[in-house]
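hiii, so i know i said id send this last week but things got crazy w the move. better late than never?? heres the sequnce for the chain we talked about at the cafe, plus the structure i predicted for it. fair warning i was half asleep when i ran it
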Amino acid sequence: MLYGREREQERLRELLDAARDGSGGVLVVRGGPGIGKTALLDWAAGLDAALVLRGGGVEFEADLPFAGLSLLLRPVLGHLERLPAPQRAALAGAFGLGPAAAADRLLVGFGVLSLLAEAAGDGPVLCLVDDAQWLDSVSADALLFAARRLGGEGVALVLAARDGEFAAPGLAELRLSGLADADAARLIEDGLDPGVRHRILAEAQGNPLALIELPRVAGDEPAAAGGLSERLLAAFRGQVDGLAEATRAVLLVAAAEDTGDLGVVLRAAGAQVGDLRPAEQARLVEVSAAALRFRHPWCAPPCTTVRRSRSGSRCTSRSPPRCRGPRPPTGAPGTGPRPPPGPTTTSPRPSRAPPGRPASAAATARPRPPTSAPHS
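okay and structure toks below
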């Protein structure tokens, strides 16, 4: 059951009603990790459509042409024979059902549109595509091409994507924000200590995934007091990993520098304010004339994890300033006594490596993200 999404549910009903009346259309649902995009699509799958097609992007298949289309269109490939010969040949070759040929993206786009229109011959078709930011480029182009031409085809297409990713200019959008306090409270499990419950509501800021996951690491048991859940951290870590190296370098410094002074962060990272634009678009940070802050307490820890990009290079080799490491918000699960601050300096200085250890390792080894406790 969904809480606090009545407006969004009504938008999806209206979209399907338009398809049922013989029209159709598209809606791009946007929001940050854990905000409830998949849950909304799960709910929509139960609407009264003649046919529901579900698909989505898979991060590790983003470089495989037609991977996304094959997941979505497999149930309707029986309609291929009804398509014009050039479109039929283009899709058959793409899906391994005919001779392979160089993909003509225009023909593939028309083929997708025609295939969906044929499938809607018996009633409205609802297409639900999750994690559109991970669609391979050929699939994304074909779906966007078809999306702009769905009027009169009896097809409703819903594409869910993270903030700042999957450009879809000209298409109607619906942005998911955090739940209101009353709805957020209904998602938290019963039996929690009132103080813990209040703290989780404040920290989650209406994010449904956080509301579900934080209680699992907020108990009094020693095993549960280690920090944010791995599932919650992984959701934001995946978003950070998709950013450019220069942006990740600034975020690493920002996570280590606890004053939020924009000038200090940029100087320490050797960056320009424009390098933060992708992180702003992804709604990870907010930047003003002189300050930078993470939008959620759990956005900072994933930025301190040294990971490798798809090209195999490290996210960053720059050193954070000599300062205290990232700390959880006041009263957050796993918060313990803080060590005394280190010596302060008037300007950021690179970390020094201990004897026998490369300097780059010292630069990326500190600060370390909080240890995640196992799920209960």
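btw Residues 181-225 form one domain. thought thatd interest u
miss u guys!!
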